[in-house]
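Changelog excerpt

This revision adds worked examples to the README so contributors can see how folded entries look when concatenated. The first example is reproduced verbatim below.
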Amino acid sequence: MAAVDAAVLSITRGDNMGYDIKIFDPIRTAVMVIDMQNDFIAVGAPLETSTGRALIPILNKLVDALRDRGATIIYTAHVHKEDGTDIGRYGEIHPPSGRGEALVEGSLGAEIYPECAPKKGDRLIKKHRYSAFFETELQQILKERWIQNVVVVGVTTENCVHATARDALFRDYRTFVIADCCATRDHPDAGWGALSASQVQQTSLIILKQSTADVCTSEELVKRFCFPTVLPT
């Protein structure tokens, strides 16, 4: 399955939502690359999100374009201590983390996937909950750099991408979620029927667009930040 199918991309079109301002300053922009870690992205990983691997080329192109034009690039890594002392009730809701099966701080699985690793000058924030704002230094970094716009990409759309985007909006940042640069996975039946990754992605983007963020594609975003109309090859 492609990282984003036609139905999902159609969510980004139309003029029903989004910011009236059509051109934005990359210098006042932060790109949040959410949780592109081995435990989410690698083949056979405990939290494998295969569609996350598929989006890496376009995600890297977008991040490189924004970085080259002065945007602040911030990667996040969701981690927990091996002894579980920092996990709290979240460990009861998310058993793989609660049992120490994934995202253990210092483990290979918690590291950023090599194909989309941070570059010189990028920041890396370790977080312990879905939102990158929760008990991290993120807010201080954004204030120090006079950030006005927050672009969110990565995995998973319905959890950490959504939580970070919503917290960015609540802190009065213009917030963007990039449809072809975020991904999720299949969800098994939890009492209301199973959902495919495509269904989860489409539903998540609809909710984000209607309540939280300006949802657009990477190419659409590039045009709005005074960049070339085609991503670099």
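The second example, added in the same revision:
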Amino acid sequence: MTDDPWSRATFAGTERAQADVVAALTTDERLALLEQLLDVARASGALQRSREAKQRELDELWAPT
């Protein structure tokens, strides 16, 4: 986060809006949202591992022999 007051205000407003949305969800809806967020986190982790593996592969190809 920056020292810009507009950025801080926007971030805080977004955080409150998200909290309000989550508070309005039923227990089942919250569980479904959590499951979706976990799926996104797993996919993000898999993508990062794939990128790292590709980078290692490229580094090995370009390494002096």
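Reviewer comment on example two: The chain has one domain: 5-62. The chain has a mean pLDDT of 89.
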